[in-house]
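User: Can you model how S-adenosylmethionine sits in this protein?
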Amino acid sequence: MNDIRRDAPSFHRNIEPITQKMHEILSKNSLHVLEIGSGSGQHTTRLSREFPHLNFQPTEYDVDNLPSINSWCEGYHNVEPAVQLDVSKKQWFEDEATKFDILLCFNVIHITPWKITEAIFKGAKNVMSNECQLLFYGPFKIDGKQTSDSNGEFEKWLKGKDQGFGIRDISEVDTVAKNHGFKLKRRHPMPANNLICEFARV
Ligand SMILES: C[S@@+](CC[C@H](N)C(=O)[O-])C[C@H]1O[C@@H](n2cnc3c(N)ncnc32)[C@H](O)[C@@H]1O
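Assistant: Here's the modeled complex, given as structure tokens:
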């Protein structure tokens, strides 16, 4: 690994089941993938290798992560240069002509304020195709309850960092989704008490 490339330890634990699940659930007609909060860029690089027919647009809020993403994805013909994106911006891209078919949002909404969850659905409305899939990977609460003791401990740790962070309840996320023309389609159980929550347009 070179010193530009960042390494997220959780990537190594989670990427195999994520990849496997995406093979099962991604629509065969999809072309364009938008990733929110790409972080180190490791998910982007692995998934772009796994799905060579898809074109990936990685994005990051923190500009300091952009070189890492671009370095991990160097040489991949199906990955665009990473761009800075704060999802709470009114308009995500200057040119919103390209419509994305898949939105990936891994490990973001529990570690950002609730307004970021709202902003993601609000922005997605303008940039996603009609048949899109929005995939949120991470821990979730179901019916207001944690799905494991370890998620409860994790939430305490998140709240210690910022009271506005927290493991989101699926039905509350779904309410926000519906306010913006999306709805929960399926939830896919994943190892380590995580889920992929899949949203589609209503
Ligand atoms: C825990 S990291 C997850 C990174 C990566 N997706 C992963 O799973 O390894 C949370 C990410 O949320 C991003 N984020 C925080 N605020 C954001 C915002 N306003 N708009 C877009 N992304 C944001 C951070 O920059 C960071 O990359």
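A couple of observations from the model: The first strand starts at residue 32 and ends at 36. Residues 9-201 form a domain with the Rossmann fold fold (CATH 3.40.50.150).
User: Helpful, thanks.
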